[in-house]
Amino acid sequence: MVQAWFTAAHAPPEPHLPPDWRVMPFDSLDSTNAALRRIVEMEGDVHEGLMLWANTQTAGKGRAGRKWSSPRGNVYVSILVAAPEDLIHAHELGFLAAIAVRECILDLPRHNAPPPKVSCKWPNDVLIEGQKVCGILPEVVADDAKRNWIILGIGINLVAVQIDPAAYPPTALSLHNIDTTPAHVITVLTRELHKWFAVWREKGFAAVREEWLTCGPDKGAVVAVGLPEGSVTGEFAGLDEDGALLLETRGGRRRIVAGDVLFGDGSHAARD
Ligand code: BTN
After folding, report:
1. This prediction's pTM
2. Which pLDDT tens digit goes with each residue over 32-43?
3. CA distance 14 to 39
4. What is the best residue among 51, 76, 261 to mutate for testing ligand 1's pocket, by most ligand atoms within 8 Å of CB?
5. Which of 20, 57, 78, 86 is the least crowded, having the fewest Cβ atoms under 10 Å away?
């Protein structure tokens, strides 16, 4: 099943996964999202919980066509999830993944230190003490039977951080007294994802949104959003029922469905 574009699989330790999940570990891939897409499109015989894990990526993908710097030591995984019947709900998985990553981070053992402040940044990032520790890239793919899947790509910084000066200020777990391994992070992360997939399917996006709001920006916090037509600054007013960002701006309430969000007035010009 492993195709020639992959380099050799790396040795265990492998993570412990929820029932029916399966990991395919690699030392190096171009992008775990791109490789999983090829498997879905070419192999067909796939199932929810199939996960690709790479030690490093040569062409890691970020949102909005950006690159995701992928040095060794961090987590790079892509997980296959059965798409909701109506693809209009597909983006909800990004919020779900963010709260699962947050809970994963809070569950990891720390050296004699209180828990760090782990928050969610709209739409799909996770921050520790205001700096980005995780990026999430959900993508839709169809198999040859025209069945839709979501590829949930997740990158978590453990020891190394992105050095792209255009990136949102980065951080890593090791900088917050969390000394762990990629395999252990994946064990805890998949447990949290498995739990939240069930909540999402049983209770719908409302339950995910409610949890996200407990760890998103405070109401009234100043948020700047980079949009193709320029930056918009306003006070955070919540998430709409579909996950759109609500901002109170001088010109009135704005509903934002895509963009890069910065906390503060955006003057440091960092993007995610
Ligand atoms: C972002 O914040 O821009 C999203 C970054 C997503 C990075 C992860 S790393 C694993 C998976 N494979 C990729 O090529 N991208 C995602």
Report:
1. 0.90
2. 999 999 999 997
3. 21
4. 76
5. 86
